[in-house]
Amino acid sequence: MGDFSKDINSSFPNEKIKATLNILYTANWIRGHQVEFFKPYGISPQQFNILRILKGANQKLKVQTIKERMVEKSPNTTRLMDKLFAKNLIEREHCTNDRRVVYSNITEKGVLLVETISKNLRQDLLENISETEANTLNNLLDKIR
C-alpha cells in the first residue's frame, strides 16, 4: 500500500474529499487483513469482537448490550452469536421473567481462543507510523467523529 491517489489512479477536487475516501480505502484494507488473519481460527473479526466483549465484561450480557459495544456495528449480531454458540464458544441463558431476553456468556473454550488469538494479533498493520503519529491519527479520527 502506498500513495492513495496512485493506488486508485485518481485525483480529487480537494484534500477533505481525498481524506474521506482514503479513510474508507484504508479501513477496507485493514478489514481485508483482519479477515485473512482470523480465517485459521474459524471466526470472523466481528465474532472475535463479540468474544472480547464477553470476556472483558466477565458477566452475562444481553444481545443488545453486545451490539452497542461492538466496534463494527452489525445487524447480524444474533447470527454471528449463533455461530459462536454452535462452536461452544459462548453459552446462552433465557431470562426467567422474559423469554425474549437472552443473556450470553463466554465459555472456557471461548476464553482460551481469545487468549490464543490475542497473543498472535498482528501488530504490524501500522508499522510504518510511530507512536507519536499514531497518537496524532487517533486524535484526528476522534475529532472527525
Describe this entry's structure for a reader:
By secondary structure, the protein is mainly alpha-helical. Helices cover 59% and strands 8% of the residues. The chain is built from 7 helices and 3 strands, in the order αααβααββαα. The protein has helices spanning 4-7, 15-38, 45-57, 63-69, 77-86, 108-120, 131-144, and strands at residues 61-62, 90-94, 102-106. A 3-stranded antiparallel beta sheet has the order 1-3-2. The longest helix is centred in the first third of the chain and has 24 residues, at 15-38. The protein is elongated. The mean pLDDT is 90.
SSE map:
Layout lengths: L3 H4 L7 H24 L6 H13 L3 E2 H7 L7 H10 L3 E5 L7 E5 L1 H13 L10 H14 L1
Antiparallel strand pairs: 1-3, 2-3
Short précis:
The protein has 145 residues and is mostly helical. The chain has helices at residues 4-7, 15-38, 45-57, 63-69, 77-86, 108-120, 131-144; strands at 61-62, 90-94, 102-106.
